């Protein structure tokens, strides 16, 4: 049998008192703990690395917030014209029109000078884009006004300050859904 319980496994209490002198028991335990120490520390370090990676991913994901406020009901206004921004290179207006049509509204888009005669409401938007190795939409602000009196009907805002962006189609859907939700 090995002197310090090597491959035979840890000694029982009776083995400690019967076979080994008193000084050897402490040395054997110390040797066993010394062999276990690197394994324990590697497990602790691995767990700490996993925790730090999950924490960093949580911070990078960020939270998207969507808020909407209706001043008056939008339901009577069935013909909505989305005013296309001249500096919009991402076709946000097309996604907004598609979402309005999905909700059953007669929607079209273009420059303000091309507004059809039957338009009852105007939807204007302001999109803020950021660049971190790719362009992504960080904020979208919408306002719906009446066509002639410019009275505000509703407004909505989407904000997501993270590098893990949502596609414009998803953002448009979330904002329009929130804007047209029944209270």
Give short descriptive properties of this protein.
single chain; 183 residues; alpha/beta; Double Stranded RNA Binding Domain; 2 domains; six-stranded mixed sheet; 4 helices; 6 strands; 39% helix
Describe this structure in words.
There is one protein chain. A hairpin with a 5-residue loop joins strand 5 (135-146) and strand 6. This protein has 183 residues and is α/β, with parallel strands linked by helices. The radius of gyration is 33 Å and the shape is elongated. The protein folds into two domains: 13-61; 65-180, Double Stranded RNA Binding Domain, CATH 3.30.160.670. Helix 3 crosses helix 4. The chain has helices at 13-19, 22-61, 92-102, 168-180, and strands spanning 65-70, 79-83, 106-110, 121-131, 135-146, 152-159. The chain has a six-stranded mixed β-sheet, with helices on one face. 39% of the residues lie in helices and 26% in strands. The longest helix has 40 residues, at 22-61.
């Amino acid at each position: 049998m090995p002197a310090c319980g090597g491959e035979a496994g840890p000694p029982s209490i009776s083995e400690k008192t019967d076979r080994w002198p008193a000084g050897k028991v402490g040395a054997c335990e110390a040797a066993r703990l010394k062999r276990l120490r690197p394994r324990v520390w590697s497990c602790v370090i691995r767990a700490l690395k996993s925790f730090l990676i999950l924490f960093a991913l949580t911070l990078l994901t960020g939270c998207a917030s969507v808020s909407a406020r209706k001043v008056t009901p939008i339901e009577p206004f069935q013909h909505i014209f989305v005013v296309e921004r001249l500096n919009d290179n991402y076709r946000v207006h097309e996604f907004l029109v598609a979402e309005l049509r999905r909700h059953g509204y007669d929607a079209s888009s273009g420059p303000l000078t091309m507004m059809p005669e039957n338009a009852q409401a105007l939807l204007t938007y302001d999109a803020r884009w950021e660049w971190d190795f790719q362009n992504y939409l960080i904020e979208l602000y919408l306002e719906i006004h009446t066509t002639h009196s410019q009275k505000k009907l509703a407004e909505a805002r989407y904000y997501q300050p993270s590098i893990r962006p949502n596609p414009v189609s998803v953002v448009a859907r979330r904002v329009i859904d929130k804007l047209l939700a029944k209270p």
